[in-house]
UniProtKB/TrEMBL annotation:
Family matches, as Pfam families: ALAD
Family, per entry: Belongs to the ALAD family.
Residues the record marks as active site: K193 (schiff-base intermediate with substrate), K247 (schiff-base intermediate with substrate)
Residues annotated as binding Mg(2+): E232
Residue intervals passing through the bilayer: none
Keyword RNA-binding on entry: no
Catalyzed reactions per annotation: 2 5-aminolevulinate = porphobilinogen + 2 H2O + H(+)
Alphabetized CDD domains for the sequence: ALAD_PBGS (cd00384)
UniProt protein name: Delta-aminolevulinic acid dehydratase
GO CC aspect terms: cytosol
Keyword Lyase: yes
GO molecular function list: porphobilinogen synthase activity; zinc ion binding
Amino acid sequence: MFPMYRARRIRRDGIREILNNSLVEPKKLMLPIFVIPGSGKTEEIVSMPGVYRYTVDKVLDFVEEVVQFGIKSIIFFGVSEIKDSIGSWAFNSEGEVQKAIRLVKKEFPDMVVAADTCLCEYTDHGHCGIVKDGEILNDETLKVLNDVAISYAESGADIIAPSGMMDGMVLSIRNALDNKGFYNTIIMSYSAKYSSCFYGPFRDAADSAPKFGNRKTHQMSPFFGYNEAIKEALIDVEECADILMVKPGLAYLDVLKAVKDVVLLPVAVYNVSGEYSMVKAASINGWLDEMSTVSEIFYAFLRAGADIIISYHSLDYAKWLTKNGK
């Protein structure tokens, strides 16, 4: 009790630094990369200042920079001009993501490469599965996702990351991979993925906005509470996922903590596009110090239990650490 107990004693310079926990290290970060058709192009995403889309021939130069700053994992998202009702370009061996995976694994074999496994970027209707009479068909979609996962694994992906929130997707993909001999390919499941307002800039980046309706029939409601997230996580554990994910991050720190408390698997958190763009816009306007803000956010993810942080800020943060000798 005051005056014998004075909390400010351990907040002084010197003592404060000793007691601070370490900042998040670059090896904890996974950087999303958008791959587009064509060659010789690097396009900035208007709604995500500082984030670019790359043609396959430009990916290697960017990954080389990523490696220099200590980031050890990336996740690819494809942006396709070839779209049809089932998203068939997603499992074409000459697809942009497949070619990017092969190039990166050849030049940087130690880089851990994940591939987002969904159909929304490849379907002409913009939904995450096969659609019939306005309904997304779950079981029929699983068959296509299996083909996509196998295609990415054949290209050399270390991690398959199914994000469509189809029921049974982890078990279906695990069986498909194992049947092709890809026993060691990791599945990082988007286990608790919410139908969130924070995805807007991503849909611009990936040209993946639905042409009708919405994704509320398969993504979780932000107002479900914890039970649904925990149930989905435990189902993915039973279906042999290797890593779970909570998405988005900032508004769902409590969900991240709740999931981490009940599973024994690593848990990733996705610091999504809207969260990135809010911080970026505020920093551009001089309202926030960008990297100090990102540091707080990343440490909040770590404190809540994240083992992996997927963020568009990953490279900027790693550069900031290097610049400040941290």
